[in-house]
Write a structure and sequence with these properties.
globular; 9 helices; alpha/beta; 41% helix; seven-stranded mixed β-sheet; Rossmann fold
Length: 234
């Protein structure tokens, strides 16, 4: 499931891209595969890093550039200042107590004039999850805050960036999380939830015109994610 729209960004072959909180590597793999970029991923989850490394190493498209992952904290990035041509941080800031420190670090390692892409859960769908399930927001490592659009934009721009676009993604994913909250976030035995997950995964692999049209129609109302595209000041 890609949240970042790489077609909106001018990425030259060999550009160095950091995905902070890369998870299983979906954005790393797309940048390496389709943009011929050098990619670096960091995360605190060892299993996710192993998955990301496996997925990256499975790509054989002629790009012999850098593709690496390592365990690191977004609040103390182990990189020099101004080293990356693009920084991605997707669905991470809602987990971090020291979010201002994390934002400052993301901006620090980015080259002046280059793109920072941040996504978080959108306010209304996330607020519904919190209302349905107390355990959803109290799980260790779970979401500790809900951002409002103006609040997060202000935080990001105060850190030295300028927002040039805001987009919304994944309308069909919001009902999935509402269902999970209804049956219990850790409940893996709900047939309805498991069917919906299968439907979403199948649609990612083979999207249909109907689901694309439905997603587009619902995005203004229940998009699961809000995505900020920003540039670091020169």
């Amino acid at each position: 499931m890609l949240t970042v729209d790489f077609q909106k960004l001018e990425i030259k072959p060999g550009s160095r891209i950091l995905d902070a909180g890369c998870g299983g590597g979906r954005h790393l793999c797309e940048a390496f595969r389709s943009q011929d970029a050098d990619v670096v991923g960091i995360d605190l989850n060892w299993e996710d890093l192993c998955k990301a490394k496996y997925n990256l190493n499975s790509i054989n498209n002629g790009n012999d550039g850098l593709r690496t992952v390592s365990m690191a904290d977004v609040t103390t990035l182990p990189f020099k200042t101004g080293i990356f041509d693009m920084v991605i941080c997707s669905e991470v800031l809602e987990h971090i107590p020291e979010n201002r420190t994390a934002i400052a670090e993301l901006v620090r390692v980015l080259k002046p004039g280059k793109n920072l892409v941040i996504s978080v859960p959108r306010f209304l769908p996330e607020r519904i999850c919190w209302a349905i399930s107390e355990s959803y927001r109290n799980e260790p490592g779970g979401h500790i805050r809900i951002y409002r659009k103006k609040e997060l934009r202000r935080l990001l721009e105060n850190a030295g960036t300028r927002c040039w676009s805001i987009r919304y993604k994944h309308a069909l994913h919001a009902p999935y999380w509402w269902l999970k909250c209804l049956v219990g976030p850790k409940n893996e035995n709900s047939r309805l939830v498991n069917w919906y997950k299968w439907f979403l995964e199948r649609d990612i692999i083979k999207p249909s015109p109907l689901t694309r049209a439905l997603d587009k129609m619902l995005i203004p109302f229940i998009a699961k994610s809000i995505v900020f595209y920003l540039k670091k000041g020169i």
